[in-house]
Amino acid sequence: xxxxxxxxxxxxxxxxxxxxxxxxxxxxxxxxxxxxxxxxxxxxxxxxxxxxxxxxxxxxxxxxxxxxxxxxxxxxxxxxxxxxxxxxxxxxxxxxxxxxxxxxxxxxxxxxxxxxxxxxxxxxxxxxxxxxxxxxxxxxxxxxxxxxxxxxxxxxxxxxxx
Amino acid sequence: xxxxxxxxxxxxxxxxxxxxxxxxxxxxxxxxxxxxxxxxxxxxxxxxxxxxxxxxxxxxxxxxxxxxxxxxxxxxxxxxxxxxxxxxxxxxxxxxxxxxxxxxxxxxxxxxxxxxxxxxxxxxxxxxx
Lengths: 162, 129
Fold this sequence. Notes:
The complex is a heterodimer of chains A (162) and B (129).
Chain A: E1 3-7, E2 21-22, H1 34-47, E3 48-49, E4 57-60, H2 61-69, H3 71-90, E5 95-102, E6 112-119, H4 125-140, H5 145-148, E7 151-157
Parallel strand pairs in A: 4-5, 6-7
Antiparallel strand pairs in A: 1-4, 2-3, 5-6
Chain B: H1 5-16, H2 25-50, H3 52-55, H4 58-62, H5 67-77, H6 81-99, H7 107-127
Helix pairs in contact in B: 1-2, 1-7, 2-6, 2-7, 5-6, 6-7
């Protein structure tokens, strides 16, 4: 499956949280189409002074299609990703991240956009499970149930290569 | 009534020792599948016992959704997002074990699935009662 790095940083007004600095006021007008939105994001890059870069989020083609069809979900995912990476960064955890759509059944239309975090550090799986609790609650914080149902966070240990 | 936690006992037993070869991939796949159903059915029964009206919610009945996702929705409605996300992850382990023949299932997958199932069961006992 092809994967693209669609965005490397949380770059929209809703995601401008610590540790970033805003060097200009946030935009107040939402871009009308995804393509304009991408231009908007590109412009926004120039206006944000990053204190530290965030790890990249790789996105599968299927996930990218959903994001392009639903710009609001795209913004939400970026906001959640920013919160998660801040939390992981504060704990000094090194990780890879991927965005994938998951389903419970092939018959169901609903796809659950899942941020899969693979922890590189050699920590026991029991510790991963504890960290997962914290990340999930952070990700779903203040989301209505019908939105939470469409989004998930999954943690795993990164596979070691020889 | 059959207790689904016996599926977890079975998963742990066959992944360690017994009459089957614990390193045989068919054994590992079976253990993962049983671990999932132990956790899933345990939560479902807790929801049936303590929140019967939510399971019979007409809105949920009308929608064409699987029982697996219905459990996720009800966990989320109770603010148990962390259990809901782990339930989805364990379901993915189970799909791989039961259907994805081109992917290899190893002992690490089995060990993680069993720990994940135990964690889900422990937390559902804590928060759903």
